[in-house]
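Hey all, quick one. A colleague (J.T.) asked me to put the flavin-adenine dinucleotide job into the tracker so the inputs and the structure tokens live in one place instead of scattered across chat threads. No bug as far as I know, just bookkeeping. Sequence used:
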Amino acid sequence: MEKKVIVYSTKTCPYCKLAKEFLKNNNIEFIDYDVGEDREKLEEMIKKSGQMGVPTIDIDGEIIVGFDKERLKQVLGI
Amino acid sequence: MKLYELIIIGAGPAGLTAGIYAARKKMDFIIITEDIGGMTKYSWDIENYLGYQFITGPELVEKFREHINEFNVEIREGQKVIEVLKDEENFKISTKTDTYFTKTIIIATGRRPKELNVKGEKEFRNKGITYCATCDAPLFRDKIVGVIGGGNSGLDAVLQLSRIAKKIYLIEIKDHLTGDFFVINKIKKIDKVEIFTNTKVVEIYGDKFVQGIKIIKNNEIIELKVDGLFVEIGSIPNSEIIDFVEKNQYNEIIVDCKNRTSHKGVFAAGDVTNVFAKQIIVACGEGAKAAISSFEYLKYL
Ligand SMILES: Cc1cc2nc3c(=O)[nH]c(=O)nc-3n(C[C@H](O)[C@H](O)[C@H](O)COP(=O)(O)OP(=O)(O)OC[C@H]3O[C@@H](n4cnc5c(N)ncnc54)[C@H](O)[C@@H]3O)c2cc1C
């Protein structure tokens, strides 16, 4: 089954851009929230991850902070 | 075990330019790097790189990436070099998972932000404390923030935050702000910016997230409530991976005008060295020189 992937990001953060590109290049669908604009989603991200760094990526409840390619690969099984 | 002619460590402007020169000279080489783009990714507005009147850091890095991809360069991305050792005439480079052997090296590992080294800093990293204003400023909409450091990057952070945050404290340890005069004047005109000079941060406190800082001014401890803290107090070279080349008092690798270090076969380029002017265009030029230098060196080996 496809995993549900959520990316919490800001427009200006280079690692967010890289993380999203990585997902796209691997044909992984994801929902992208701009937490610089969306206050509610920012709160949600903080609640889930206990921190404020972006990107924060939620893969079926598994939280990855930062663009950690190896962990992404592992969790996504690619 | 394969022995390369050259291994370039780092893929910022210095390492990537070195890569393009090495590729055009058909050298047998790879690039090992944690990321592509290095510090350039974090520059927001670049207005002094020839050929672009204006470009953002992430966009320029995309251009770099396109350019290097024109050549068949093997880039081992996401690998951090832990140690460089001598291996008789050659060198041994270790990452967490792999070991490589090479005849020459170009160290182009750049710099990283300096930390404050005060109580609470480790605890609240990413929990209100950030070292990248470009990345994290948008998270502090209508919040109270502190910016530590009155040099150009600190001022830059204040400018970015002035469009976002509710209130900004700018804290500088010296008796005056050290950034560009023009920018200082701009910042002094912004109402919501309060400037503290001669002021030292001694503690960052909070609960789950940063709630405030303690600063000392005129021997008096003052508490400021802040939701976020941007640390912009300069940078240090990523030069720890090698201990057999000469470095200066700032730990920068000393190079000559051909980018040679004190050890034969080891070259260095860009912000990690004692080069004058830590700028993208300079780092590119240094990377080019280092690659040509390595090529020449191998020819006469
Ligand atoms: C906020 C900001 C704004 C700036 N604005 C400008 C500007 O407008 N104009 C300008 O010219 N310059 C600007 N600069 C400076 C410019 O970014 C640097 O001078 C330039 O990036 C230096 O290039 P470099 O290749 O030497 O190092 P870096 O760009 O720092 O690249 C270092 C590379 O080495 C890699 N690396 C580090 N350690 C290791 C390791 N142990 N193992 C493997 N890889 C490693 C990194 O991942 C990275 O790829 C700015 C810098 C900052 C921080």
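Adding what we noticed when we looked at it: Helices of chain A lie at 14-25, 39-49, 69-76. The longest strand of chain A covers residues 5-9.
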